Amino acid sequence: MSPDLAVVVAAVAVPFVAAALTPLFFRLLGEEAGFAGTVVAVLSFGLLATQYGSEGTVALEWIPSLNVALRFYVDGWALLFALLASGIGALIFTYSPAYMHGQSGLVRYYAALFAFMGSIIGVALAADLIAIFLFWELTSLASFVLIGFYTADDSSQYAARMAMFITVGGGLFLLVGFLLLSIVAADILGPGAAFDLAAMLEEPDAMTAALRGRGLFLPVLGLLAIGAGTKSAQVPLHFWLPNAMAAPTPVSAFLHSATMVKVGVYFVGRVRPMLVGPEWLFLFATLGLTTMTVCAMMAVAATDIKELLAYSTASHLGLMVAGFGFTSVYGAETGVFHLLNHALFKAALFLVAGIIAHEAGTREIDDLGGLRHELPVTAAITTVVALSMAGIPPFNGFYSKELLFEAAVEASHYHDIGLLGWLYPAVAVFGSIFTVLYSLRFLSLFFGERPDALGHVHSPPVTMLVSPAVLALLAAVVSVDPQLAVDVIVQSGLEATAVDPHEMHVGLPTSYSTPVGMSAVTIAVGVAAFPFYDRLHDSIRRFVGSTPPVRSNWWYDVIIEGLTDEGRWFAETIHNSLLRTYATWVLSGICALALAGFVAADAIGSVAVGFEVTLAMGLVLLVAVVGALAVVLSDTHVAGVLTLSILGFMVAIFYILASAPDLALTQLVVETLVLVLFLLVIEEIPATERIAVGTTVRDIVVSLVVGVTAFVTVLVSSGVRPEGSTDIARYFAAQAVPEGGGTNIVNVTLVDFRGFDTLGELAVIALAAISILTLIVMRGRGDDERPTARTGDAIEARDDADTTGGGDE
Amino acid sequence: MTTVIMRTTARAIVPIVLVVAISLFIEGHNLPGGGFIGGVLTTTAFAIIYMAFGLDFLERGILGRDVDPGKEPSRDRVVVAYRRLFAAGFAIAVVSGLAPLAFGKPFLTQTFVMLEGVPIYDHLEVASAIAFDFGVYCVVVGGLLTILSVVGAE
Predict the structure, then answer these.
(1) Residue of B112, B41, B121, B86 whose CA lies nearest to A751
(2) Which of A41, A716, A771, B54 is 20–30 Å from A316 (CA)?
(3) Are B72 and A807 a contacting pair at CB < 8 A?
(4) Looking at per-residue confidence, does A90 or A56 come out higher?
(5) Is A743–B80 a contact, with Cβ atoms under 8 angstroms apart?
(6) Is A596 buried (19+), middle (13-18) or exposed (0-12) by CB count in 10 A?
(7) Do A741 and B29 touch (CB under 8 A)?
(8) Chain A contacts of B29, Cβ < 8 Å?
(9) Torsion-angle region of residue A577: left (phi > 0), alpha (psi -120 to 50) or beta?
(10) Residue in chain A nearest B113 by alpha carbon
(11) Is the dihedral of CA B42, B47, B48, B50 positive or negative?
């Protein structure tokens, strides 16, 4: 059964439409607008659910000339992720109104959540590399808006900027990887499939062979890994995730545990069949297990419940990446199944954390305890999901962790990895011990002694309890009957991500095997070490606090500050409000780029220069040279301007001799106008000042370089063409009368063949006029303002003269 | 600059320049010329007026308005008119480019018709490109005059 285009597009588009309509929802419903979000999310969910069981690609035309289309590929893996996004989205929208009650900026909040949900569904379903990249970056943008929701808060701004910088930056690496992929795919599968990921995944072996043959395999793998690693908070770029906890808790639950951060994992699973191999195993298994262990230890060191959950999320993302990193089928099973399990228990835990923060008024772990009396329902929910996180049988987290152990043990059977074959299982167990520890710590908030300092804890409104309860219920269902989840969705997800899928069976172990032993060790050590939790917590904190270089966050701060300082220095050097400086830098830069380009393209060597000059031309050019010398030697501005015009008019006459009447006319007229303009403003120009020798030398060098560049550019681009006119010239000459109805080829080209270019030129002229207007008007307003910075504002005013910058304020 | 010689010369020259500019614009399709050159030449004519008679001459002498000295140049009514002119020119160019879309052609497609038996000319060719070219003309005149008058006012 193939998917239905209309339904798939609707499922992606509905949240975006809702985002646009958010203000309207607010006008109608007030703060209850969040429940409209529930309806929208459920609608998306329903639309996606109708596609259950279908598989295939549907496409909308987008940029046919580049073979870019809005392709959507529907299969179990895509549906699993899209359904998770819309389903958990519905619960978050249900939870939000009570949690966000009475806060300002809710329109922005809900609109961003809608847009985010649409983007995630888009990433899950898109099968076109460009579309994937677009949705991918959209999720980062929405995340930026939501993390920075408390705009007045500095730490919130800092966190939002950091998340944006890391995830969007990683997305750019991804884009480069995509472009390399598309180059290879265009060769192998034909140009039509250049950006079609679905087509590439149908020919994984051919693609792998082609990538290896071109030596692009490792670059592509590395670039995609950076993209996925930044998004999924893998070490060493995991630090943005704990900082992202500046966002409101529902956002953390939705974006930073259940969906957005899983996009990287999802994508790793998506391209797994194409890129799997020993390098893949080494890269992702190492990356994932490192992340899992480091972040689990950091979670133990956390003092704030949201921080604990954030590090734990990063740790579990590492678990999934490691799962996909193991090349055996168990690895894929780990990744797919844990993606589902983690979404269920972690979103619920975040919502619980939100309830605690909302009702108890604090998020400090040390200040909380014995909450089971006031929050009985929440305690029950937490018991299920926290034990699931810990991987205690029979809860659902146990099954996927068991699969990870199995994959780690099996890894050495598939590839010869020597010592790593021992190291992987050992590290997996070590990291899992910490997972057990912090899960139990979170659970202990509800048990044990109630601190005296804790004030009265309210009981939460029912809308806040529904969502975590639903998630806990689902987690419980999966715990009781994991095979049900496998049959419903995990198996089909496995088929998309595994190289050699087989019938997957999960259940409680009935006999001893190595993974069972590993689980037993994990749980036993974790429980035994729990009494020493505080000591562990303190020692990790001390170690991290005393040595900043082990903290990625410290590196980030150092690098960003360095960049900021450098940027400021750079700006002050180049933008010192002297036209001379601007011109020097800009012209030198352009010349350097142009000359480097010519050298790189090897264009200079192929130019043949002829010296056939008629007497008239020689005379004219001689006068031009004399004029140019006179410009330099003139000692007043008027003389300089007039001699410059001599040069210009000589060039115009040269055009006439070279039989280019249009050019000559233009040159004459423009030259006249420039002369007149100069004469108008000549009195305003300050008298010449003495310039230092060094500056003079520099100016001579710059002007020589500019001259040489212009000369070479003309030579290269006009192409002293030994074989006569080009095809284009011949075509224009032949078609000007029949096609354009004019005998003046230049003008027919301008308004007819190349009309769009002319339109661009018009925009430039209009922009120049507006810029000058702004410049002159701004001059009279304070010296510290930089008028040049304002010209950009004028772009939007191009079509509306009454709003041009500056004058009408 | 406002000498008697300058003013007398300007009176003679400006109409000629304007006529030449317009003729260059109109016949640009088949002979050297076109919107850009016509526009620049028109601007030159205005520049000569400015040099000979001063910046306020257009408003005071031709439009018969009073000018408050000391206003910001960009607030001048004439400058506003110039700004409107290049905005309108841009709009004309874009709209003339959009028109073919109604006939199912791509953006900016141009065509031409031959008119036979027109009085005086007898045979006249009208190219749709002239609309686009007129947009070019307006943008150039408006843009350059804006620059000129603002810079000149300084």
Answers:
(1) B112
(2) A41
(3) yes
(4) A90
(5) no
(6) exposed
(7) yes
(8) 740-744, 747-748, 751
(9) left
(10) A741
(11) positive
- Chain segment A365-380, per-residue pLDDT in tens: 888 888 888 888 999 9
Residue A147 in 3-state DSSP?
A: helix
**Residue A793 pLDDT grade (very low, low, confident, very high; cuts 50, 70, 90):** very low
For helices A329-360 and A262-275, what crossing angle results, to 10°?
A: 180
Are A747 and B133 in contact (CB < 8 Å)?
Answer: yes
pLDDT digits (tens, 9 = 90+) for A722-763: 566 677 778 877 877 777 677 778 878 877 788 888 888 888
* pLDDT tens per residue across span A159-212: 999 999 999 999 999 999 999 999 898 888 888 788 888 888 888 888 888 889
| Residue whose C-alpha is closest to residue B50's, from B82, B22, B87 | B82
Task: Provide the shortest C-alpha distance from residue A739 to chain B (in Å).
Answer: 7
Nearest-Cα residue of chain B relative to residue A760: B90
Looking at the complex, does the CB of residue A677 fall below 8 Å from at least one CB of chain B?
yes
- Residue among A240, A184, A188 nearest A216 (CA): A184
Tell me the pairing of strands A56-63 and A68-74. antiparallel
pLDDT in tens, A548-603: 777 778 888 899 999 999 999 988 888 887 778 888 889 999 999 998 988 887 77
Cβ A772 vs Cβ B147: under 8 Å? yes
Q: Hey, what amino acid is at A168?
A: V
What distance in Å separates the CA atoms of residue A122 and residue B72, rounded to the nearest whole number?
52
> What number of other Cβ atoms are within 10 A of residue A526's Cβ?
21
Q: What per-residue confidence (pLDDT) applies to A552?
A: 79
A659 touches chain B (CB under 8 A): no
* Nearest chain A alpha carbon to B37: A666
Chain B contact for A795 (CB, 8 A cutoff) = no
Return residues 727-756 of A near B (CB < 8 Å). Answer: 740-744, 746-748, 750-752, 755-756
Cβ(A300)–Cβ(A231) under 8 Å? no
Q: Does A663 touch chain B (CB under 8 A)?
A: no
Query: Considering CB atoms only, which of A669, A743, A756 is closest to B40?
Result: A669
Interface test with A, best of B3, B55, B110, B144 (most A CBs within 10 A): B110
Which three-class secondary structure state does DSSP give residue A425?
A: helix
Give residues with Cβ within 8 angstroms of A466, minimum separation 6: A91, A94, A95
Which residue is it, tokens 């303009």? Answer: A677
- Other beta carbons within 10 angstroms of residue A157's beta carbon come to 15
Taking CB atoms and an 8 Å limit, are A798 and B90 in contact across chains?
yes
Smallest Cβ–Cβ distance between B129 and the set A752, A759, A807 belongs to: A752
- Of the two residues A802 and A352, the one the predictor is more confident about is A352
